[in-house]
Write a structure and sequence with these properties.
- The protein has two domains: 93 residues, Immunoglobulin-like; 274 residues, Purple Acid Phosphatase, chain A, domain 2 (4-Layer Sandwich), CATH 3.60.21.
- It is globular and about 60 Å long.
- It is 19% helix and 34% strand.
- The longest helix has 15 residues.
- It contains six helices and 26 strands.
- It has 395 residues and is of the alpha+beta class.
- Strands 11-10-9-24-25-26-21 form a seven-stranded mixed beta sheet, covered by helices on one side. It has a seven-stranded mixed beta sheet with strand order 14-15-16-17-22-18-23, covered by helices on one side.
- Helix 2 runs parallel beside helix 3 and helix 5 runs parallel beside helix 6.
- Bound molecules: fe (ii) ion.
- The site of fe (ii) ion has 6 residues, from loops.
Length: 395
C-alpha cells in the first residue's frame, strides 16, 4: 500500500516519466584525456548520489555504447559528482552522448568531436579569471560562437573562494560551452581555497577544482597534443612545488625533440611579465620558468591573473627580442599574452606603459588562436567580439 501511494505521489508530482529532480544530472562538462584523439572525460553532478552513473554514447543518436562512472568526492562538497572516461574513441569523429542514471534520468543528447591527429589547421580559445557574472556568461557565448576545438581556462575559475555552492552556479553557467567543447584548465590562486567551518578558516587547497574537473596526467600540471602543437599546463601558483620545474624542463625538452611538434604553447595563471598598477612583473617567474621557456623556445605563453588584456613584445633572456608590431619569426622570442578578462572587474595599468609591453587594454574578452603547420595567428577580441589586436608567429 505504502509503495502504491509513493508511486502515485511521484506520478502526480513529477508526472510519469519525469525525473526525480534531486538525481537529475546537471553541470555536464567534457575534457580531453591523455590522448585527445581517442579519449574523453565526462563529468556531471546530481543533488543527491545516484545508485549508478553512466555515459551512453555512439556515432549516431542511437548511442549504443556505455561507460560506467565513478563518484569523486571531497570534504564539504555540495551534491554528488560523477566522472567517466570514454576510451578507444575514433580520431576526428563526432560522437553523441548523454549522462545520468536509470534512477535519476539522463541529460539531453549532446555532441563532441575527438581531436584530429593531423589537422591542416585548427582554432582554440582561451581566457582566465572567469567567475559568475553577465560578462562571464557573454564570454561563454563567445567561445560557442568561435567553435574552437577546445577552450583553455587560464586559472581563477569560479571565484567560489571557499563557498562551495558558487561552484555549482559556475558550472551551470558554463555548461552550454563545457558540454560540447573540451575544457582544459590551469590552476590559479583562487583554486587554492579556504572555507569557513564554524567561524574558522579551514584550508582545503585545490581539492574542489581537482574533484570537479578531470585533467590529464597529474592534473596539477600536464600536457596534451593537438596536431603539431603541444600544450603544457604549468602551475604558476605553486611553481616551486617538488618536481614541478624538473617536469617542466623535461616536458619542454621532449617537445623540442619530437619531430611532429612544431608549436609549444604554455598555459599558466600568473603572468611572467605584467603591467598592472601595483603588480608589475613576477620576479620569481622571471628567474625560474622564463629561462626554461627561453631554452626550448616556447612560442606562446597564455596567462591570466591580471584582469585585462596585455601582450609583450617577444622576449628572450629577459630582453625585448623584436620591436615589430605584429609579425614575428618563429623562435625569435617567446610571446607572453595576458588574457585575464574572462568576466571579472578590470584592473588599472601602471603609468607610463613599460617599453616591453606591445599593447594593452582595460577590457574583458578572449583570445582566439588559429594554428597551422606554418603559423600561429593570435587574435585578442573584446567581449563584443570586436578585434583588439592580431599578431602572427610564422616560420
Ligand atoms: Fe589570480
Amino acid at each position: 500500500m505504502k509503495f502504491g501511494l509513493a508511486l502515485l505521489a511521484f506520478g502526480l508530482i513529477g508526472g510519469f516519466g519525469a525525473l526525480p529532480p534531486d538525481m537529475a544530472p546537471s553541470q555536464v562538462r567534457i575534457s580531453y584525456g591523455e590522448d585527445p584523439t581517442r579519449m574523453m572525460r565526462v563529468m556531471w553532478q546530481t543533488a543527491t548520489p545516484t545508485p549508478s552513473r553512466t555515459v551512453e554514447y555512439g556515432e549516431t543518436v542511437e548511442l549504443g555504447m556505455v561507460a560506467t562512472g565513478t563518484q569523486p568526492t571531497y570534504a564539504y562538497q555540495t551534491g554528488a559528482i560523477a566522472e567517466a572516461t570514454l576510451y578507444n574513441l575514433k580520431p576526428k569523429t563526432k560522437y553523441f552522448y548523454r549522462v545520468g542514471s536509470k534512477e535519476g534520468g539522463f541529460s539531453p543528447v549532446r555532441e563532441f568531436v575527438t581531436a584530429d591527429p593531423n589537422p591542416k589547421e585548427f582554432v582554440f580559445t582561451a581566457y582566465g579569471d572567469h567567475g559568475v557574472s553577465p560578462d562571464a556568461a557573454k564570454n561563454v557565448d563567445n567561445v560557442l560562437f568561435e567553435k574552437p576545438a577546445f577552450h583553455l581556462m587560464l586559472g581563477d575559475i569560479s571565484y567560489a573562494n571557499g563557498v562551495q555552492p558558487i561552484w555549482d552556479k559556475y558550472l551551470e553557467q558554463i555548461e552550454p560551452m563545457t558540454s560540447v567543447i573540451p575544457f582544459m584548465l590551469t590552476l590559479g590562486n583562487h583554486e587554492n581555497e579556504d572555507i569557513k567551518v564554524d567561524g574558522k578558516e579551514v584550508e582545503i587547497g585545490y581539492v574542489a577544482t581537482l574533484a570537479r574537473f578531470a585533467m590529464p596526467g597529474a592534473e596539477n600540471w600536464y600536457t596534451f597534443d593537438y596536431g603539431c602543437a603541444r600544450f603544457v599546463s604549468a602551475n604558476s601558483d605553486a611553481y616551486k612545488a617538488p618536481g614541478h620545474l624538473e617536469w617542466l624542463e623535461a616536458t619542454l625538452a621532449a617537445a623540442r625533440k619530437d619531430k611532429k611538434i612544431k608549436w609549444i604553447v604554455v598555459l599558466q595563471h600568473h603572468p611572467v611579465y605584467g603591467t598592472s598598477k601595483g603588480r608589475g612583473d613576477n620576479k620569481g617567474l622571471i628567474e625560474t620558468v622564463a629561462p626554461i621557456y627561453d631554452r626550448y623556445k616556447v612560442d606562446l605563453v597564455l596567462q591570466g591573473h591580471d584582469h585585462h588584456y596585455e601582450r609583450q613584445y617577444p622576449m628572450r633572456a629577459n630582453a625585448i627580442a623584436s620591436k615589430d608590431k605584429s609579425r614575428y619569426k618563429k623562435g625569435v622570442g617567446t610571446l607572453y599574452v595576458v588574457e585575464g578578462g574572462g568576466g571579472r572587474p578590470n584592473y588599472d595599468f601602471s603609468d607610463p606603459m613599460p617599453e616591453k609591453c606591445a599593447i594593452r587594454e582595460k577590457t574583458n574578452g578572449y583570445v582566439r588562436v588559429r594554428v597551422t603547420g606554418k603559423s600561429l595567428v593570435v587574435e585578442a577580441k573584446r567581449l563584443d567580439r570586436s578585434l583588439l589586436e592580431k599578431f602572427e608567429i610564422s616560420e
